[in-house]
Specification:
Blueprint: H1 4-18, E1 23-33, E2 36-45, H2 52-68, E3 76-81, E4 88-89, H3 92-97, E5 102-111, E6 114-124, E7 128-133, E8 138-142, E9 146-151
Parallel strand pairs: 2-3
Antiparallel strand pairs: 1-2, 4-9, 5-6, 5-9, 6-7, 7-8
Helix pairs in contact: 1-2
Length: 154
Amino acid sequence: MLSKDTLSLIEEKTRQLIEPLAFDLVELKYMQASGSITLRFLIDRVEGGINLDECCDLSKKISQFLEDDNIISSRYTLEVSSPGIDRPLREPKDFRRATDREIHIFLKNEHKGKVEMEGKLIESNNEGITIVCKDGGQEYIPFLEIDRAKQVML
């Protein structure tokens, strides 16, 4: 099992490696089952998408630094892929990137009787977002109220 400190180190080093190449680490997922460790890196271009050759190249680079720095002592599987069409939204920059797109939000607590909301993201700042809901109404939702969110394709 990897500690939170080890995962934070892997995430930090991955960002240092890929950001100068104009890539963005969208999410690092850690999974462990039956003694097997899998690290899944969801990576995208800062502007535009990522292709299969780029995923392969980044996989080699990430694998190399993990081996060189001996960060993980046990066997593991490394996966590098695009975040896909239902891209997770975590940071304000992710929401800014999704402006004018449909998003699905899972709330920490009820907001006007709802724990999930879906609509077109029309505005984002460092404190929250504004969406146009399916009924045409606008809702401002602070980031502190969002449990998780993702971009969706219709």
